Amino acid sequence: MSLDKFDSFESGRLYAWEGEIGQTLSTAIPKPESWIIRCYSAVPSTMDIAHALLPETSSEKPGLVIAQAQLKGRGRQGRSWDSPDEGFYGTYCFSSAEPLERFLCLPLVVGLVISETLADLDCSTFVKWPNDILSSNGKKLCGILIELVKSKTHNSFLVGIGLNLQGEPSSQSRATSVFSETGRRYSAPSIASILSPKLNEAFGTVAKDGFKPFKDLWLSKTKGLNDRFSVHIGNEIVNGFFRGVSDLGYLQLEVNGEIRELPSGELLIDRSN
Questions:
Q1: Count of structural domains, the chain
Q2: Residue spans of alpha helices (H) in the chain
Q3: Is the same domain home to 259 and 207?
Q4: What is the pTM (predicted TM-score) of this model?
């Protein structure tokens, strides 16, 4: 998709949203970043619009695309994503020239940052490897999809987030929303204003130090340590006991008395071509 494709969305641009988010991010602490922000009333997928936005972004200039409605949202493993009314549907664009291996933990870190952000809103959640965010009673609040775009000089990451703010997907019986959990209503721009600087800061930490700075906190926010897990990796289902995560963010599963490490990096979908 080329940048001229944006023309078909201009009539649906939400300039008030862009101004609200931009004003907050311009005063972010510890330092403001020069963000590229696009907000729309409805798009097929924020991931596709963000992909077209990549040439305008850089490591010093992250991007964000948000839509009130997503008509063809995507989930993991090619599944469609049901986008109920009054949710946060956005894709972040982050870039770095650091080695790709350092970012294999990104699904875990993004999930952790969202969980911590929700905690600040009095919405208690826990994280389940690799990036599920569940309420205290095990209902799903948020979906995350990360796509990788390679170039000769750097890697770009499209971080798609679908967070149930008020509505809940009819297709998921075990779903909940921030409103159902807290009784409070939050808008997509208000969530973007809070979440964006936290994600950008976390991405910078991953680029510098990988998963290690996040490991202990992630383990404190998860459940099921030492429980039996079944993990779907590619065409294989691996059964074992959940023993923790490595410094790279790999799931450590005890299988037949031996620790097998399963990389979360398999969730980084390569759409460079």
A1: 2
A2: 15-25, 46-53, 106-120, 178-182, 188-209, 212-220
A3: no
A4: 0.88
